[in-house]
Amino acid sequence: MLALIDGNNFYVSCERVFQPWLQGRPVVVLSNNDGCAIARSDEAKALGIKMGAPYFQLRDLERDAGLIALSANFALYGDMSDRMMTLAAGLGHTQEVYSIDESFIDLSAIPGDLVRRARTIRKRIHQWIGIPTCIGIGPTKTLAKLANAIAKNAERKPGSYPAQHAQICHLGACTPEDLAALLAATEVGDVWGVGRKIGAQLREIGVHTALDLQRMSPAAAKAGWSVVLEKTVRELNGVPCIEFEDEPPAKQQIACTRSFGHPVTELIELQEAVTEFACRAAEKLRKQNSHTGQIMAFIRTSPFRQQDPQYSRSASIPLPSPTSDSAHITQAANAIVKRIYKDGYKYAKAGVMLMDLQPATREQLTLDFDDTMPENRVRLMLAMDQLNQRYGRGTLKLASAGAPKAMKLWAMRQERMSSGFTTDWRGLACVNNDRST
DNA sequence: TCTGGGGTCCTAGGACCC
DNA sequence: TCTGGGGTCCTAGGACCC
Fold this sequence. Notes:
- There is one protein chain.
- By secondary structure, this protein is an alpha+beta fold.
- It is 37% helix and 19% strand.
- The chain starts with a strand and ends in a 46-residue tail after the last helix.
- It binds a DNA duplex through residues 30-36, 38, 52-57, 59, 72, 98-102, 192-198, 225-228, 251-259, 302-304, 349, 351, 413.
């Protein structure tokens, strides 16, 4: 048996822990650049705000409906996530952290009443961390995810499912009849792995609910779509096809891409931005102790500005010898940008991707025995990472990153960000010591 | 004026090989 | 009277997830 535990409206809930006056009000958290809504409180969902809705379209709701929009504070969410995951791990023996707000827990060989155990953990997370959660339990990952969706909907939309499934739903403990009834009440699009496109195709052939999909033959799922949907069908029938991963596999590629705060036209500015992205990507690369063998970079105009001429191009170059050296990676990324840059466009976004990743320990057998990552470079990069970790991002950087970022057109807009309540001494909450109150 | 970022996996089709 | 067959590898693009 597996559990899936996740935080409700996670980013909004993190903000509410430290700003209790946000409780009960419609709140959204915005993506980078204050671009669009990426988390919504129940009250915001009730206003009809869709996932990914552009912020500029929500302005009237701020004025008329008391909507509060906050810039994303990812440092805070990451820290709150660590705390939540630590407590969630107490549910079973092993944990797979699946995303910033979700983890699977292996419950096999856990004796006793699983629902009661889940209730204890849920309460503890709420009491100690302040984050509301839902827990789904089932024999496969897909069923645990589905149970979690049922637990959420039963809580938020009373009447959609029997009330006993609210917050915690254990599909493994249902009778076959009850399970079928729950699956029949669940739209096929709510099944993990069924997105917009495949959902529409399924509905077209009369598959509307999770129960319809469960009863489809795996062969038909594979023939009509792919082995991915075939696995989904099998998992809905209680046959595990998606493995549980206790420890995260090393990444196969690492990206750092950003939309700009304002359009950029000059090559030199693009290169400053790309230098920063390349350094951030290199930092992530060293953190997982890998080397990259190929660098890709892209620049593009905004597809939303139809009135402007459009241009989008990417290119990649293989490295003579795999490296994690920020200077080499930056040099390659800048060479690409110089090559693909064309004058006369308003650039809106750029990015760097590191491909062909391999363990840093792997021995390089180049013909001329040219060691491109000698020991002193490794130590230099390590020192740079440690300084930036300790004193803040940008403490030590390459000269090609240019002057301070606040001056840059491409720098992100983040006008409504909360404090680093748990990640920065200056952001610590202050207890009111006014004696007159 | 203003529309995110970072991943994974699968498939089809072309290049290439013998 | 009409151009083999089978295999691998790579890449681009699509679909999905949060």
